């Protein structure tokens, strides 16, 4: 009887396919603390290494990178709170945020490193100081890695379907477009030089492509989760 209760309690706190215990006060909490320290370092870097963006309308929130980092910070803060309190409700809210933050960070890393490899001037204007390598990784790589680890090892399977995922990605993409156009009205420049090279129809294409890429990244995360952790049908058969 005690074994049955222990198993029921374990299932309550961890989905059958979830590879590691989370929320927990063990290595789950350790990962989330490390992630939040990394994010704090990145935000601090923006303050102690100011550039013209610091005094412009929209601050660094003009950058998709910083918006994604902010969402990742919210996600990991909720994850750590769930670890501390062992609250399934907070854990569920964290997982809901991760449905957006993880694919967004994958998108940010793919676009940034892809465009930078092709032509650095597309993502970094001439007047912008070059980032230290540690800061560059902190903005454009580490958030993705932390969220991937959390998604694949410390979270239940993804539940959002393709159509709602695409709709959400389109809303995010075109809301961001509206935001940077508003910032442009005040500042007279775009945060990423590539935007200045495109006309309206090309920007529509870019943001639509980005939304599709974000949707595909979310689908890929879900598929790879199944490869790493198994599928629900298989887990049921094995029980």
Automatic annotation (TrEMBL):
Q: Which InterPro entries does this UniProt record tie to the protein?
A: ADTRP_AIG1 (IPR006838)
Record's subcellular location: Endomembrane system
Name it.
Integral membrane protein
Q: Transmembrane ranges? A: 26-43, 63-84, 96-115, 127-148, 160-180, 204-227
Keyword Transmembrane on entry? yes
Q: Which UniProt keywords apply?
A: Membrane, Transmembrane, Transmembrane helix
A GO cellular component annotation here is: endomembrane system
Q: Name one Pfam family in it.
A: Far-17a_AIG1
Instruction: Provide the membrane topology annotation.
Output: Multi-pass membrane protein
Q: Which PANTHER family match?
A: ANDROGEN-INDUCED PROTEIN 1-RELATED, AT02829P-RELATED
């Amino acid at each position: 009887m005690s074994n049955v209760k222990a198993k029921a309690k374990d299932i309550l706190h961890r989905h059958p396919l979830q590879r590691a215990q989370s929320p927990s006060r063990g290595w789950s909490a350790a990962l989330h603390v490390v992630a939040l320290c990394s994010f704090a370092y990145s935000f601090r870097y923006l303050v102690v290494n100011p550039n013209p963006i610091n005094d412009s309308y929209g601050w660094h929130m003009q950058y998709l990178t910083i918006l994604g980092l902010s969402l990742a910070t919210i996600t990991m803060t909720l994850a750590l709170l769930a670890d501390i309190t062992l609250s399934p409700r907070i854990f569920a809210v964290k997982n809901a945020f991760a449905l957006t933050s993880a694919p967004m960070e994958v998108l940010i890393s793919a676009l940034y490193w892809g465009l930078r490899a092709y032509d650095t001037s597309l993502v970094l204007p001439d007047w912008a100081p070059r980032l230290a390598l540690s800061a560059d990784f902190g903005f454009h790589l580490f958030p993705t890695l932390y969220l991937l680890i959390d998604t694949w090892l410390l979270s239940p399977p993804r539940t959002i379907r393709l159509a709602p995922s695409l709709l959400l990605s389109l809303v995010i993409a075109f809301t961001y477009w509206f935001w940077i156009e508003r910032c442009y009205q005040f500042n007279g420049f775009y945060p990423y030089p590539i935007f200045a090279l495109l006309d309206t129809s090309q920007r529509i294409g870019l943001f639509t492509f980005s939304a599709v890429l974000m949707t595909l990244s979310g689908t890929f995360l879900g598929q790879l989760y199944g490869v790493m952790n198994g599928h629900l049908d298989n887990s049921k058969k094995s029980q």
